[in-house]
Amino acid sequence: NAGVTQTPKFQVLKTGQSMTLQCAQDMNHEYMSWYRQDPGMGLRLIHYSVGAGITDQGEVPNGYNVSRSTTEDFPLRLLSAAPSQTSVYFCASSGYNEQFFGPGTRLTVL
Amino acid sequence: QQQVKQSPQSLIVQKGGISIINCAYENTAFDYFPWYQQFPGKGPALLIAIRPDVSEKKEGRFTISFNKSAKQFSLHIMDSQPGDSATYFCAASMDPSGTYKYIFGTGTRLKVLA
Q1: Which residues of B, range 31-50, sit inside 8 Å of A by Cβ?
Q2: Cis ω before A8 (30° cut-off from 0)
Q3: Which chain A residues have any C-beta within 8 angstroms of a chain B C-beta?
Q4: Exposed, middle or buried by CB within 10 Å (0-12, 13-18, 19+), for B14?
Q5: Strands (DSSP E) along chain A, which ranges?
Q6: Which sign, positive or negative, has the C-alpha torsion B30, B33, B39, B43?
C-alpha cells in the first residue's frame, strides 16, 4: 500500500516548456486534489476531482490543466511554464476525515 | 482570498514548554477543522482534527481548543519536544465528512530547542 505517489521529485524547466506532474493513489479514493506550496502562502488549491471524468478549478487554476481518466491517476499539466509557477506541488487523495498527501514535486522554472 | 488566518508565522519554544498556534476564520459554514504537521521535504500529514460541536479535543500531547462564538481555534502542544519541530498548518472545510475542499492557513514554523 504505497498511498499517494508523485513523480518526479525535482524538475527544472525553462520558461515556455511544458510538462506533466504525475500523481497516483492506491486507496480507491474518489476525491483527489493538487496544491501548490509557497513560502508564507500556505497550501493553495489548484484543481480537484471528485471522481473519474470530473474535475473542477480551485483557488489558483490559471496555467494548469488536469484530467482524471481513472480513479487512481490525477496528472497536472503545465502547458507553458512561467517563473511564477516555481513552487512545491503536492497531490492529495481524500478519505473520510483526512487528506493524504504525496511527497511533493519541487519545480523550478528559469 | 485568505479565509483562514494563522499566527504566529514562526515560534521558538524550549524543550518541555507549551507551543500554542492560533487560527481564525470568517465563514461560519466551515464544519471541520484539522491540523496538519509537515516535516522538511515531506508532505503534510494529519495531526488532529475537531468539529464545531465540541470545544476541545485531546490526543496525547496535542490539544485543539475551539471557540465557535469567536470563530477561533488553536493547537496546544504540551511538553514540546525537539522532534515536534516542523511546520504546522490549520485548515477548514465546509464538508462535514472532512473529505474535501480544505482552506489552509499560511503555516507556523515551530522550532523546539533541546
Answers
A1: 32, 34, 41-46, 49
A2: yes
A3: 4, 31, 33, 35, 40-45, 48, 50, 59, 90, 92, 94-99, 101-104
A4: exposed
A5: 4-7, 10-13, 19-25, 31-38, 42-51, 54-57, 64-66, 76-78, 87-95, 98-101, 105-109
A6: negative
Residue A71 contacts residue A51 (beta carbons within 8 Å): yes
* 3-class secondary-structure state, position A76: strand
Q: Is the peptide bond before B40 cis (omega within 30 degrees of 0)?
A: no
pLDDT tens digits for chain A (110 residues)?
789 999 999 999 999 999 999 999 999 999 999 999 998 889 999 999 999 999 999 999 999 999 999 999 999 999 999 999 999 999 999 988 889 999 999 999 99
Q: For chain B, where are the E strands, in sequence order?
A: 4-7, 10-14, 19-25, 33-38, 45-50, 56-59, 62-67, 72-77, 86-93, 102-104, 108-113
The rounded distance, in Å, linking the Cα atoms of B91 and A99 is 11
CA distance linking residue A27 with residue B90, whole number of Å: 24
Element (H, E) at B1: none
